[in-house]
Amino acid sequence: MPKSLLEQLPDIVAQGRKEAEKILEGIESRHRVSLQTREVVLPAKDAAATDWITAQARADRREVFAPGQGSLLESAQPSLAATQAEAPWANRLIYGDNLLAMAALLAGDEHTPSLRGKVDLIYIDPPFDSKADYRTKVTLPGLELEQKPTVIEQFAYSDTWSDGTASYLAMITPRLILMRELLADTGSIYVHLDWHVGHYVKLVLDEVFGKNKFINEIIWGYGGGGAPLDFYQKKHDTLYWYSKGERWIFNKQFRPYSEGTFRTGFKAKGMENSLNPEGAGLMDYWTDCPKILSYNAAENYQYATQKPISLIERIITGHSNPGDLVIDFFGGAGTTAASAEKLGRRWITTDLGKPACMIMRKRLIDHEAKPFLYQAIGDYQVEAAKATLGRDFRIGDLSHIVLSLYGALPLPADVNPQRNLGQISGLEFGGRKGSKTLVLADSPNKLTGLATLKKAIAQRDNLMGGWDKVVVLGWNFDPAIGEQIAGLNDKRLEVLVIPPDLMDRLKKKGGIDKLRGQVRFSSLQYLTIHPIAHKTDGNTETLTVQLKNYVLLSPEAINLDDANRIKLQQIANAEPLALIEYWAVDPDYDGKVFRSVWQDYRGNTANDADALRVVTTATVTALAKAGPRKVCVRVVDVFGFEAEVVTTVGAV
């Protein structure tokens, strides 16, 4: 007879502790998980507004930095930067698995210290309905698509619920343990759940934080919806508040007296000031934070699990002070980050969903947030491989698997020491008789870019007497890869994308043989722009950037059904720039970190009145330079794919 959930719970908690302990041990190693800064966002919602470059001297922008890549201060005043042991704080929006994000935050790096014991408040609103449908609606001009979760999201979700509530508890337990490690001694955590799993997670919270650290169970009641005929309508969520230590931050809050209470108090005492002038102290049931947001409400970002600002602001106000650090590891629509920004708190938010991260980035720009970092998990595929192949795996093992699934036979060891080269005969891949194709599987812990492509071409031309063609298989790409491929203009070079969910699928299927023939390696997308116009007026240079074309070359990688894929192809052919969700310009690109000083995105009507399209021309002002300047233009499409163009402007 299978064990009940209560019988399984001790094993679930014990296993969760082991998983968390492995991560805590790993943060001390040389190969610890890190964060890669994809973008330093300097919000500039209105193109007509003076941008950050001209509004502030570089020395005044010291709060904007890029961990692991240097800071704005370093590029402007190296002598000052050299004396600064630690980079200043910048808020962070992190895309990726929150377990890996926690590991990176606990580990820290050479530019940012570990946040172990430094977080004042954690609020999480994890998914708590196994039957929820997290599809994303993508509205394009004259067309609405329904996108299923990305493959990475799907596998994460299926892992969470594969064995029902037991799997959910196995997912949440190590995360709660790491969250406790991040909390300051006076810190608090709020865990937001409902009737699906709330009472089970309460038992785990008691184990992780201690029953004596449970401060309040808060009921958040809300209205709306119909009334069932055979049971009471479920109209409340539960918030579990735990502290880490014996003391915690608590700022008492009040609600206005009702008219009846005010009249009663006045009548009984005969004088108005007998009542607390601030109102009645809040109790542990809150019914004044409406859940249902009107469709046209300014704060409504059309995100399925979005929570109202009034609820989150109450939690942040009650359990942190200005300047304190607030983290949300299930960021969703970004309400926690937006509220923390408004209330003067530092913040970090993470999410595994690309749609969520796009909504959060746009929302923060909408709210004219202070500059923040958009980061991703470094070496994500390496961490996934460790989970599947064991902690002592080698990159060569992973390359061998990729080559095999692509259908390539490995080259002899004497010419293939890294085990990342394979071969395919013409007949095997439908080519002409006697043709030979070299296949290179690139490493997951670096970006596939121009250097790799040139190396692959050289190996094609020289290795073992030469080959007819070379195929490069990559995990992560230099955002300018499309431009680099076009620049090489080599018809005997092909670049394909290794499916990002490959390790998850391998783990599910149980081996290469069961997955063979089911893996699709897709092609890349790319961006083109018109020549950049520029003119100098004194100390200011004005750049006019105009988008030309965006080509989505891998629609098969998007999780759509056949009918929606046909619709997508039609609009991609007719109006390709309509696929762009967000784009930004860095007029002083250093080749390492993208600093966006101008942005536009769908839904931003400050630049035009069209909520379904971005503007296609940007006018950016920058401090004039005597020599050439490198300009980078980056786009993100409605599905989360990125592409960029880097070009040089001015005299060389």
From TrEMBL:
Biological process per Gene Ontology, one example term: methylation
Q: Name one Pfam family in it.
A: N6_N4_Mtase
Question: Domain DNA methylase N-4/N-6, which positions?
Answer: 119-359
Q: List UniProt keywords, sorted A-Z.
A: Methyltransferase, S-adenosyl-L-methionine, Transferase
The UniProt record lists the keyword S-adenosyl-L-methionine? yes
Q: What Gene Ontology molecular-function terms does this entry list?
A: DNA binding; N-methyltransferase activity; site-specific DNA-methyltransferase (adenine-specific) activity
Catalytically driven reaction(s): a 2'-deoxyadenosine in DNA + S-adenosyl-L-methionine = an N(6)-methyl-2'-deoxyadenosine in DNA + S-adenosyl-L-homocysteine + H(+)
InterPro entries for the chain: DNA_methylase_N4/N6 (IPR002941), DNA_methylase_N6_adenine_CS (IPR002052), N4/N6-MTase_EcoPI_Mod-like (IPR002295), SAM-dependent_MTases_sf (IPR029063)
> EC number(s)?
2.1.1.72
Q: What family is this protein classified in?
A: Belongs to the N(4)/N(6)-methyltransferase family.
Task: Name the chain's protein.
Answer: site-specific DNA-methyltransferase (adenine-specific)
Source organism of this protein record: Acidovorax temperans
Q: What is the lineage of its organism?
A: Bacteria, Pseudomonadati, Pseudomonadota, Betaproteobacteria, Burkholderiales
